[in-house]
Structures are given as C-alpha cells and as structure tokens.
Amino acid sequence: MWQPEGMGKGAILGSAVLAALATIRSVNTVATWKTVQPLPDMPLNDGKVSVVIPVRDEESTIDGCLASLRTQRHSDLEIVVVDDASTDRTVAIVQEHVDADPRVRLVRTDGPPPGWAGKVHAMWRGVAETSGDWLLFVDSDTESAPDLVGKLLAAAARDDADLITTPGRPTVANPGWWLLLAPTNVLLFDSASPDGSRGKAVGIGHCILVSRAAYDKAGGWRALSAERADDIAFATAVRDAGGRTRLVDGMDSLTSSGLDSFGAVWRSQRKSSVAGGAMLGGPTVGAAALGFAGLLHIGYGIGPVLMALRGKGFTRLAGLAAWAAQSAAHRSYMRASHLSTGTSALAPVANAAFGVNLLDAAYRSVRGGDLWKGRDIR
C-alpha cells in the first residue's frame, strides 16, 4: 500500500475518515435542499385560518408583524396574540391593533405554570381561543407578504400535507448566517428531513401551518408542555401521529428580523443549545455533551485547513476534499436562504465558530444556565 514518507497509518486513516465524513454530510445536505419546493404561485382561499402569535417583550417587532398579517388577502382570518407576561410596551402596541381590527384579539397570561415552557404555554392558550380549520403559528419578529396565508394553504393542498413550515428570509444579512446558521443547518439535516421520512421532522418556529385535525391528533402543545426545541418536536409529533409534514421555501413571502445581527444569531444559537443540552439528562450531562460536541466541531473545521495547508500527499488531498465538501454543504444552505454564497469557501471557519458557540453554551450550562428574556431556559 502506498504511504507518504513520514506518514503513519493512523494519520492516513484519520484523514480519510474526515474527508469521507465531510463528503457524506455534504451530499446529504445538498440532496435534501433539492427536495424543498417553493410555495405555489397561486394562493388558495379556502377554510378559516387562526393565527397564533406568542409574545414576550416584543415591542420592537410586534407592530410590523401584526401590520403585515392584517394585510393578508385570505378572506377568513383571525389573529390571536398571547402575551407571556411582557414588561415593556408589547401589550399597548397589540391593543392598538385590537382596537383597529376586529380580527385581532389579545390574550394575557402571567407566565407559564410549573412544568411548562413559556412559548409552548402561550401557544397552547392561544389555540384555545381559536376556531379555525387551520392553525398558523408565527414568531413576532416575522413580517408576511399579503399572499403568505393563501400560499401556505396552497402548498398544503399541493403536497397533501397536514403541516407546512418555512423559515423567514433575513432582513439584514450578517456573518452569523454563514458562521453559525449554515453549520446548524447541516447538523439539522443529519438527523431530520423536510418530509419527515427519516429521523425527526423539520419544523421552523418562524412559521408553522397545521390543520386543526392533525394538531388535535398529535395531542397539541399540551403533549409538549416542557419542550424547548418546540418547533422540531411539534412537527415530529404531528408526523408520529400519522400526519404528513413538509418544509417549503416561503422566504419570498416571509421575512424575519430576529437574527439581524451577529450577536443576535450567537445568543439565539447558544440559547437553543443550552435548552437542548439540558433535556438530554440535566444540566451536567447537557454541559458535557455540548462541550464534547463543541470540540468535535472545532476539530471538524480546523482539520481540513491544517491538512490542506500543511499536509503532504494523501493528507493534503484529503484536506482539500473535506474543505470542498464542507463548502458545498454550506453553499446549498446560503443559496436556499437567498443569501450570497461567496462565504461558503470559509466553511471550515464556520464549523469551528459553531464549535466555539457550543463551548459557550456548555460554559453557560455549568455556570447555571442562560437567561432568555429574564428566564432560565433550561
């Protein structure tokens, strides 16, 4: 067997494994995005749709969210905003929309009871106030084109789906998208699929449309009362109850301002990791798992660069192959997000940065958790 001078069998095997792993993940990510279809061109005006918006201290975004929803062309629409004990001007802003539009209602809570996550509890309370054939859950930092609701319904009809979900297009591009969200997407597609055919079903909290029948059959939000990764858990629960789920590209009809800065992306990713880690078996186990995953991602990112720049022979070729594969995976995500793909060449840097974010999450877990809008998210 050919072996470069000074290079042991262990180094050859390690280089080959890294290149193979990056290639397999890249092929999966690229192929998965090719199955994600855009929303249909023609909206469907059929059935009552109940929009539920959970809010907590959202004074900077809720006005735009409600203003855009009130422009929807769908003829049978109700909008229920559930306030989760806000301390800013959120309630006052929502009340202005309630006074101006009879389709908008406000439900106020004092926060979640023991055993409930705040957002999940708010959505559960909101559903109890609705009567639509379809339920549409949107985040308060989103803004919708006038045809969003109709096109979501058209996608459900086209795909014979019980649940349709889409991310929102960023209103301000920033490095957080390619440094943190691209690696997150690759990791998501390692264990979840847009149609729920393998692993978990994909759900994006920005926007989830589900039929009431499928919602009830899956047990609703009550069945996920303590869940922090609520979007994926909800889509998976609908799938497991016999529903059909689909991730679609609705970014031409939906924007999201919640991740408009690098700091916002960093904190959001860290929050999700802390919450997810705690659910693995408590804060200590979660912190250990996050720390281990962080180190793996740093090595996954730095390895190809060192191999390509400092290696020789097989090592260099393997490093270049791993680098190219990581870049291809990130390029597919950036293209799907309607963003520039030029940064994909720096995919190894992004994977290392994601690893550092996971280490930050592990540190926060050890130090006692991470606060999100004044609450411990563990």
TrEMBL record:
InterPro entries: Glyco_trans_2-like, Nucleotide-diphossugar_trans. GO terms for molecular function: transferase activity. This is Glycosyl transferase family 2. Keywords: Transferase. It comes from Kutzneria buriramensis. Residues 50-217 form the Glycosyltransferase 2-like domain. Gene3D superfamilies: Spore Coat Polysaccharide Biosynthesis Protein SpsA, Chain A (3.90.550.10). The keyword Transferase applies.
